[in-house]
Amino acid sequence: MIAPHPFGHEITAAHLIETFSADKQWEDRYRRLILLAKQLPPLPASLKQDELELTGCENRVWLGHQRQPDGRLHFYGDSEGRIVRGLLAVILTAVEGKTPQQVLAEDPLELFDKLGLRQQLSTSRASGLQALAQGIKTIATQYIEG
């Protein structure tokens, strides 16, 4: 597996919902995002290729993918910004290990609403998050269309 990470496996959506529900203030959620960012292993320079870089994000963001032998998708990525890395960790949790059909059937940003994160994002971060979600949907579509 290219660039393994704990999101979607050891760190699940249910785990994040439980953890974030204890945080009543935005500042606490912000700190939790930074802690999540620290758990996302940095991509080696060899994987920070231009074709993996997303446009529309405040910070540089790389999003890679790999189809597993069982047809499920493995997503991996990195960003230069701590908060964006945390947002990436949340979205990886939402989509990791799902089939392309499952990725397309669900809104990867729904988890952000359940965590109480989306409404607190700046306009530029929110549009970057939307670009990240769209990148994931585009990748899933490519696997279906083959």
From TrEMBL:
Gene3D superfamilies: 3.90.1010.10. Pfam families: SufE. The active site is at C57 (cysteine persulfide intermediate). Residues 18-138 form the Fe-S metabolism associated domain. PANTHER family: SUFE-LIKE PROTEIN 2, CHLOROPLASTIC, SULFUR ACCEPTOR PROTEIN CSDE. Belongs to the SufE family. This is Cysteine desulfurase. The gene is ygdK.
